[in-house]
Amino acid sequence: MSTTNDEKIDVGKSETLVYSTEVQKAIDEILPSDDPLDKPDFDTIDYINNLFPTEQSLTNIDDVINSLECKVDSIDNDIRSVIRGQIEVNKDGKAELQEAQRYIKHLFSQIREIKQKAEHSEEVVKEITLDIKQLDYAKKNLTTSITTLNNLHMLVSGIESLRGLTTKRKYGEIVMPLQGVTDVMEHFKNYTDIPHIAQLSTEVKQLQKSLATQIMADFREAFSGPNAKNFVPNKQMTEACLVVSILEPKVKDELLEWFIDLQLSEYTHLFDSAEDVAWLDKINQRYAWFKRQLLQCEEKFRAMFPPQWELSERIAVEFCKITKNELSKLMVKRKNEIDVKLLLFAIQKTVAFENLMAKTFNGNTIIQNNEKSLNYITKQPINKTETEEILQPFSDNLHITDVSENLSSSIQKSEPKLNSSPFYGLISDCFQPFLYIYIDSVDKNLSELIERFVSDNKITLAKENIDDQTATVLPNCADLFLFYKKSLVQCTELSNHNPMLSLAAVFQKYLKEYAIKVLEVNLPKISHPATSLTTNVSNMTKDLIKDLQLLPSGMTEASVKNVNCTPQELAKICCSFIPKFIQHLYKCKPLSNIGAEQLLLDTHSLKTILLDLPSMNLDDNRKAPASYTKVVVKGMTKAEMILKLVMAPTIKHYTSFVDQYLKLLPESDMTEFQKILEMKGLKAAERNELLNIFRPRNPTGSFVTSTAALSSLKQYTSLIKKNLISNSSNN
To answer: pLDDT for 309-324, tens place per residue?
Structure first.
């Protein structure tokens, strides 16, 4: 102990070392210890109190002090050994560091030597390749000079050759040198500041202009000269067309425009607006004439014009443009002579002709000239007087004032179908301003149809026995909607713009007429003032009529209050409503998400109205019967769940969809499940996979469940009918 006393550390005089949290955490991981002396928050007083909690424990103070001194000596020995070991490590580390520095110096000397050798090698390579680079530059310049001289020689000789060939009209021999001269001039386009090159460029342009003028004159002589009737396409004219293909594009455009006008000149004379054959009843003769003319033109000139010029299609396009303009002008002048039969006949024949053109040609020339046509249209002033004259009858006769502006805008901006031919509408668009005649005809036919329904005394809703599971459907209702369907399909083929919007307004008008003149007259008649339940129903009827704007002519709101309904009539009017509503939901297939969302909103609104019907306009705020509320909630909630399932995603989530279906419609069956899949518009393979997942989870089968649902429906329907009769008899 005496040998170590000098090396002991004076704990009382040493400063407390405080480490950061990260360092202390690392020390605890490397040297874990449970000794309180090793804790960073060591408290001397607490430690002494733990050792000597009572006065009696102070008798052991000597033993504790000896134990601590032994522990201090042990720690001092450990520290001493560590320090001594570290001294040896420092000595070895210094030796290794000196050795590493020596190797680094040697490495630097080697790198310096390699760098010097590389620089020397680079200089040697530069000296060796200097002559080669000079030779490469000389070769490149020489090649460029020779190429330029050759091109210049070709240009000069080509110009001289073309002059002679042009004079002799040897168009077949002109094609190759003309193409060569054109390509060479493209090479010299950056050297036009050189006087000689500029002179040659001017000569080439003059030569091209001379060729264009000469070929145009040859065509005029051949097709419009004294011997035009005896002209037969020859090789010279075919070769002249090849020359035109090399010249500027405007030369070809001018030649084709002249030639097409020449081919259609007879058409403009035969079908002049002053001729009887020009009217709509003879419109088929226009198209017959063009078919004959096009066949003759193809047989006679097919070999003369290059195929890439698409001459036949260009003639067809020009014919369509002329026909559209002529028909538009003619119909404006004689619009009073147009009836719906004549209009539909003309449209039918025109659309058939456009379909034929769409099958015959691909419409490339229309697409290529689309931008040019649009620029031309935007620069032309609009004849407002003529436009207003055409459109005014359309708006005046229909009096459309309730149509949404947003809907109108969206319809007007509707785009054509994808992959449709540009020929569609190229002529038939001229009939668009006159489709009001068709709308007027539909209006007239619907008016006559409604009058026939009114005069038909065989139709009545007054039946003694009422089936709880069926609702009375008027036969003339099917006739009305069949007419609607046919008219809608026909209008879709004619136009999907303003006429379609106007047709919707006509449909709306006659739906109201049908409700007033046919449906309301079969409702209970006006009699003595009613009380209690019948009063409530009459108030409900009054509000519905008022909200739907269906108040019959000559029937005031005061007279509506006197409506008296028997229980049988109430049952006839109202509750198989919900089953029928759900059945009609199933018929909406396929149904898009947007349509399902709108139907869901409508269903929720209808549910709210049905719940409020029994207490509508009552002063005492009487609540609806619990049985009534239960039926309405159950039935309409089922309708809401059906629409929510239609909106639910199914792709890649088949099992989740089936789980959601069973959760929302636990009493459903296989038949209803299949109907909802059809509403979603799924493919057969998808439906089969979903049915295979659903079938094991619905072991009862469709028949048993359907029978239970039918029994439940009969029970609730009979209950409502019983309540209606009971309340009526009590009051």
So the answer is: 889 999 999 999 999 9
